[in-house]
Each structure stands twice: as structure tokens, then as C-alpha cells.
TrEMBL record:
Sequence similarity: Belongs to the Fur family.
UniProt KW Ligase keyword: no
Organism: Emticicia agri
Cofactor detail note: Binds 1 Mn(2+) or Fe(2+) ion per subunit.
SUPFAM superfamilies listed in its UniProt record: Winged helix' DNA-binding domain
Listed GO CC annotations: cytosol
Keyword Nucleotide-binding: no
UniProt protein name: Ferric uptake regulation protein
Length: 155
């Protein structure tokens, strides 16, 4: 689905590639399109599998390299969910949000609370610090009935 976010992302990416002297390759543009059509948190392997399923052949190395390029361009956001879990998501022009992570099924939920922005602003003023971003991860146990690995309590 092509929307305004995607159109803006393409424009930003093309300018970035030009400035960095990088080529506008089909693979790069396909990756950007794929990323901007999804609404989840994904890693390189997820992206690779989806693209292979859609017969868009891009090598794993190309995916890894271009995730770095997209990150540098600010078009994706990199999240460290737990020790060895790195997930990406599209970033440009999206509302600020934070994450809840279930320690049992690793499912990630998003939430947005404008009060966090106010706190960030207050802390910045108090500490004489120009805060440009924040990362907040809340860990715990989701309440889904089918949450995998959830420890079953004996009644
Ligand atoms: Zn869970
Ligand atoms: Zn997110």
C-alpha cells in the first residue's frame, strides 16, 4: 500500500543515496517498499523470508547492509528488545511510541502516552539538556490466554 509516509520515505531515501554517493538499486527500493508496507517489528531474517515469499530475491547480505543504510538515513528505528533480540520498524514521521515486552512469548506491544513527552521536556529543562529521543521498554507478562511459555500456576 502506497501512502503519504511511503512517498515521503522514498523522497528522503533518494536524497540520502545521492548525498552518500550510493546507487539507487532495485533491491534497495524493494526493501524500502516492503518495510513501509508492514506494521510490525521485524529482523533481517523476517524481512528476508517475506521477500523470498513474494519472489523478490534479495540476498541476506544485501538486507543486512541496507538495514544499516536505512537506519543511518533515519527511515527505520532499531529496537533492542532483550539481550539478543534486535527488531526494526519503520520510523519516518510516525508517532512517538514505546514498547511493552512479554517475557514469556516475546510479543511486543506499542503504547503512546503524551505524558512521557512532558516528562522528557521537564527533565530536559531541569538538567539543561537537549533531549532528542528516548527509549522506554516495559517488561512483564502479557495476559493473553494463549501466551506461549507462560508458567502455569497450580490452583
Ligand atoms: Zn505473552
Ligand atoms: Zn514499535
Amino acid at each position: 500500500m502506497k501512502d503519504i509516509h511511503y512517498e515521503k520515505a522514498v523522497a528522503k531515501f533518494l536524497i540520502f543515496l545521492e548525498e552518500k554517493g550510493l546507487r539507487k538499486t532495485t533491491e534497495r527500493m524493494m526493501m524500502l517498499e516492503e518495510i513501509y508496507s508492514r506494521h510490525d517489528h521485524f529482523d533481517a531474517e523476517d524481512l528476508y523470508k517475506t521477500m523470498v515469499d513474494k519472489k523478490q530475491y534479495v540476498s541476506r547480505a544485501t538486507i543486512y547492509n541496507n538495514l544499516e543504510v536505512l537506519l543511518e538515513c533515519g527511515l527505520i528505528r532499531k529496537n533492542q528488545f532483550g539481550n539478543n533480540v534486535t527488531k526494526y520498524e519503520k520510523a519516518a514521521n510516525f508517532r512517538q511510541h514505546d514498547h511493552l515486552i512479554c517475557l514469556d512469548c516475546q510479543q511486543v506491544k506499542e503504547f503512546c502516552d503524551p505524558r512521557l513527552q512532558q516528562i522528557q521536556k521537564m527533565i530536559g529543562e531541569m538538567m539543561k539538556f537537549e533531549i532528542t529521543q528516548h527509549d522506554l521498554l516495559l517488561y512483564g507478562h502479557c495476559e493473553k490466554a494463549d501466551c506461549e511459555n507462560k508458567k502455569v500456576l497450580n490452583n
